[in-house]
Amino acid sequence: MSIFLYTAQDLYTWLTSKQDMLLLDVRNSEDFKRFQVESPYDFDILNISYFDFMEIEDECVKQIPRDKPVRVVCASEGSAKFVAEILEKNGFDDIGYLEGGIKSWGNLLVPSLLNPGEDFELYQFNRPGKASCSYGVASGGEMMLFDPSRNIAFYQEFAKEKGCTLIRTCETHLQADYIAGSRSLMEATGIEVVANSHDFSGANFTYTPLEDKQLLKFSYDGPEVKVLFTPGHTPGSTSYLIDNRYLITGDTIFIKSVGRPDLGGQVDAWSDILFTTLQAIRKMDHSIQLLPGHYIDWSEANENLAIITSLGEAIDYNKAIHDIDNEADFLTFIKSNMREQPKEYATIRKINANLEQVDDDKADELDLGKNECAASAYAAEKG
User: Fold this and answer.
1) Catalytic annotation on 133?
2) Which of 14, 91, 181, 325 has its CA 20 to 30 A from that of 140?
3) Marked catalytic residue, from 74, 133, 170, 373
């Protein structure tokens, strides 16, 4: 078999079908440690720098097993192809290299239908390279999006495949950990952007301000989409209750953690606000299905690899957090589990408010890597 090019979707399919292979990442060790391919299942991965292959080829080749396919990953494709050619020269015969490099993995979106057999369709778009989730609700030939990423071509094509027109994109908050796609979708298609002015009042683009408890509607009969202000992670954090059964929470509450209230530099004030919000969420129907904006790792996925659980199960898992009954102890917990936020976050906020512009290469660089938005002892250990 000759050297071939494979896609991020191919890689996801191989990993989730447990194909026996070696993933060879030829980026430098620093970039590899910062961000690497992850899977819900164990797989073989090896990091040997492209520069090592250039300087000590024989020693590098000896580290590669010859009894399984080799799939090479690099920063932008060229180095992976170079290493694949070295391996072919040394007698390896099943070698692929990732199209577009690691950024293509970082931008991959994997759709899952969460409610088969119902009158409307609720989709989760998992972004495994970012451990992030966006959502889509389709009804009557229309689709609303929630927290889309900058891979807007995916959402446009997905809606087209489902026979839907995109009518609205809903932001849960001013994102700091990834570049949002709502503004780009608006510019490309004219779609309405709705957002909470407590986060977006200074933004330099047109959006429709939300009101707490308002209903967002489809043109025809469809599920009720209720806006719920849930501040704390940011002042304008907003959740969306779909059909009184599914709660899209953004970064307010996750399956194995809650949102960090320290990213805005006002941890004392925002911690008190988040505490009040969590007390209100705890009083909601515990059978509601929680749909978070992020996850820590694949252990949060269900048997269908969807990131979803009941609100009650999330509260039970995070019992140590949700049982805190006063603001002072909650603040102590938050401060004891704080981590330094990535330096890129300040720039990403400005980009998402259209207060700063960058080219595509810089956007890819800023947008790469897992999120750091969770506050829990488990998240702190992982981070």
Assistant:
1) no
2) 181
3) 74
Is 0.85 topped by the overall pTM?
Answer: yes
Query: Residues 83-97: pLDDT tens digits?
Result: 999 999 999 999 999
Provide, rounded to the nearest whole percent, the portion of the chain with pLDDT above 70.
Answer: 96
Sorted by where each begins, the domain ranges of the chain are 4-105, 109-382
Q: What share of the chain is helix, strand, coil (3-state, %, to 5)?
A: 35, 20, 45
Domain 4-105: which CATH number of 3.40.250.10, 3.40.50.1980, 3.40.50.880, 3.30.70.330: 3.40.250.10
Whole-angstrom Cα distance, residue 323 to residue 337? 16
Tell me which residue of 32, 1, 28, 221 sits closest to 95, measured CA to CA: 1
Q: Select the CATH number that applies to the domain covering 109-382 from these four: 3.40.50.300, 3.40.50.10950, 3.60.15.10, 3.40.50.720.
A: 3.60.15.10
pLDDT above 70 for 376: no
pLDDT tens-digit map of 23-73: 999 999 999 998 899 999 999 999 999 999 999 999 999 999 999 999 999
Categorize the per-residue pLDDT at 265 as very low, low, confident or very high, splitting at 50, 70 and 90.
Answer: confident
Q: What b/e string do you get for 181-205 counting C-beta neighbours within 10 Å, with b at 16 or more?
A: bbbbbbeebebbbbbbebbbeebeb
Q: Does residue 380 surpass a pLDDT of 60?
A: no
Classified as helix, coil or strand, 291 is strand
HSE of 192 in the Cβ direction (CA atoms, 13 Å)? 13
Rounded-to-integer distance, Cα 56 and Cα 236, Å:
53
